């Protein structure tokens, strides 16, 4: 991973990946496939750790190349934090489904779909706002 990729992400790939999160979450909930959600948890964790081998991100990169989208660098740390939150949400949905709490899983899954839709369609990253208003002030106090 180059030094640039360590600090920046491509906004187009982030938004395409968010769209894929919508699709995977919707399919998982519709068919009640909890293990597809578990794969999504691991994909979120991979992205939160800043690794480049996330299956959804790799698929998004392929789509971006096919569509010949111009790279748009954005700061990666808030996106990684948002991915960590996505992992927590998805793990919660998985736990709810395997315990037969389908209504609660659908509500939580719908919230994840809304958050991913905001990112994918409107460039609104709620996790990034949480990062900006909670994480950065905490980091500044520690320093």
Write the layout of secondary structure elements.
Blueprint: H1 3-7, E1 8-10, H2 11-31, H3 34-48, H4 55-67, E2 73-75, H5 76-98, H6 102-122, H7 126-142
Antiparallel strand pairs: 1-2
Helix pairs in contact: 2-3, 2-4, 2-6, 3-5, 5-6, 5-7
Q: How many structural domains?
A: 1
For the report, how would you describe the main beta sheet?
A: 2 strands, antiparallel
Overall, the morphology is globular
Relative strand content: under 5%
Q: What separation lies between the terminal Cα atoms?
A: 28 Å
**Helix proportion:** over 70%
What is the number of strand segments? Answer: 2
Compose a concise summary of this entry:
This protein has 7 helices and 2 strands. The protein has helices at residues 3-7, 11-31, 34-48, 55-67, 76-98, 102-122, 126-142, and strands spanning 8-10, 73-75. The chain has a two-stranded antiparallel ribbon.
Descriptive terms for the model:
single chain, 143 residues, mainly alpha, two-stranded antiparallel sheet, 7 helices, 80% helix, globular
Structure commentary:
With 143 residues, the chain is mainly alpha-helical. The chain has one domain (3-142). Helix content is 80%, strand content 4%. The chain is built from seven helices and two strands, in the order αβαααβααα. The chain has helices at 3-7, 11-31, 34-48, 55-67, 76-98, 102-122, 126-142, and strands spanning 8-10, 73-75. The protein has a two-stranded antiparallel ribbon with strand order 1-2. Helix 2 packs antiparallel against helix 3 and helix 5 (76-98) crosses helix 7 (126-142). The longest helix has 23 residues, at 76-98. The chain is globular and about 40 Å long. The model has no long low-confidence stretch (mean pLDDT 94).
């Amino acid at each position: 991973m180059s030094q640039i990729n360590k600090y920046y992400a491509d906004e187009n790939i982030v938004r395409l990946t968010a769209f894929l999160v919508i699709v995977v979450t919707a399919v998982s909930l519709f068919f009640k496939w909890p293990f597809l959600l578990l794969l999504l948890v691991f994909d979120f964790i991979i992205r939160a750790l800043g690794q480049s081998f996330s299956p959804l991100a790799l698929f998004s990169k392929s789509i971006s190349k096919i569509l010949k989208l111009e790279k748009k660098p954005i700061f990666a740390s808030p996106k990684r934090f948002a991915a960590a939150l996505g992992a927590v949400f998805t793990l919660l949905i998985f736990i709810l489904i395997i315990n037969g709490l389908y209504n609660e899983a659908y509500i939580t899954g719908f919230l994840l779909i809304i958050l991913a839709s905001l990112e994918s369609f409107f460039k609104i990253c709620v996790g990034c706002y949480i990062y900006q208003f909670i994480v950065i002030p905490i980091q500044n106090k520690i320093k």
